[in-house]
Amino acid sequence: MKICIIGSGYVGLVSGACFSDLGNTVTCVDINKVIVEKLNKGIIPIYEPGLQELVERNLKKKRLLFSTDISSSIKKSDIIFICVGTPTKNNKADLKYVYNVVKSIKSNLNKYKIIVTKSTVPVTTGDKIENILNSKKNINKFDVVSNPEFLREGEAIRDFQYPDRLVIGTNSKKANKTMKNLYLPLIKKGSRYINTSRRSAELIKYASNAFLATKITFINEIANLCEKSQIDVQDVATGMGLDDRIGSRFLRVGPAYGGSCFPKDTRALVSTGQIFKTNLSVVKSVINSNEKRNKILLDRIKLIMKNKIKNKNISFLGVTFKSGTDDMRESPSLKMIPFLVKKGAFISYYEPTGQKKQFKSKNITFYENIKDACQNADLIIIHTEWNEFKQLNFKKITKKRNFKVFDMRNLYSTSEMKKNKINYFSIGR
């Protein structure tokens, strides 16, 4: 099939590379000429394991192309995927980029096409897209489908190739048949294909992300209780997770959730509830609790340091919101590090992806390796759960004798740290 993907950001780029790898001819469109030129040379602007190889392979086979020409890309396609950003504006999803794309599609409909929203959009967005496209000239020339993405940063290629489910929101038999054929290689590998109404598909994405955010927030709150009642939160999480109705995934304590999805999607879902005069009190509580998470951990740092933060050297291991990605959007470190600098601390950090553009203070220094980042540390903070942080010899990477370790991801055993005479602090235990 001939596919046009509009928006060559995270979702668009991963989807385009993966669709082309399934044998389709894919044109990824973006308005940024510099990015398009780099992509056509195989230069990837984001960190995502396996993506570089996938793009290079399909560029070579001429199944994947990057372009700034939206008109011709639309006209020669059978299926158009809308993969532009939907950032939060005043706690609502800002859909201006989506609707700008739809206007371009409207003026270039030369034959029947399926227009698919893969961007995360609120309920009724598909209805509004349909209304914009409707005209005498475009009768029977299109179907609007919702096909939400469920890609985890750091695991996106695998998530696309072996999805838990494929959700297709449409009442059109013609569009559903075409979409099922498109995804047939994945269905044959065992992926579940679900055909729903368009509005249901739109809400499935938001509801899924809100529920996962709720699990993270819940276990973080339980960790707060565990710390005050001398209970190991990991015992609690294990005991809960063995219940099939609950499951163990996303019951891992740590900093506040961040990234490109959970923060904006929970806020947008609450906004949708308000439009339909529905009080989503659970989701509101999750947002509120997550916003307070940084303060709780910063208070813990002050306690660990006995309120003596001024002129102390604090090293952060990892600054992205989670491992496997270079995404800094709404990462807890963006609030924690400036707060500690304001208190007079000197911050050094190491980030495996090389992310070093977010911090500009002269008291914040990026290092290319762990040892250099930690050698003068009074406090080492494990902020992100990268594998290379899981087997560190702390006494060899720092010169200080009385250094402390605050493990925000519970990567280490408290008993082992005690045995090695390391001043070790973790979460919820």
Describe what you observe in this structure.
By secondary structure, the protein is α/β, with parallel strands linked by helices. The chain is 42% helix and 16% strand. It folds into 2 domains: 2-196, Rossmann fold, CATH 3.40.50.720; 292-425, NAD(P)-binding Rossmann-like Domain (Rossmann fold), CATH 3.40.50. The chain has 17 helices and 16 strands. α12 runs antiparallel to α13. The chain is globular and about 75 Å long. It starts with a strand and ends with a strand. The mean pLDDT is 96.
Number of strands: 16
Instruction: Look at the structure and give the CATH class of the largest domain.
Output: Alpha Beta
Helix content: 40-55%
CA radius of gyration is 24 Å
Main sheet attributes: strand count, strand direction, barrel closure? 6 strands, parallel
- CATH architecture label of the largest domain: 3-Layer(aba) Sandwich
Strand content: 15-25%
Number of helices: 17
Q: What is the end-to-end distance? A: 54 Å
CATH topology (fold) name of the largest domain: Rossmann fold
Task: Kindly give the count of domains.
Answer: 2
Structure classification: alpha/beta
The overall average pLDDT, rounded, is 96
Major sheet: arrangement of strands: 3-2-1-4-7-8
Low-confidence stretches: none
Q: For this structure, what is the CATH homologous superfamily of the largest domain?
A: NAD(P)-binding Rossmann-like Domain
| Morphology call | globular
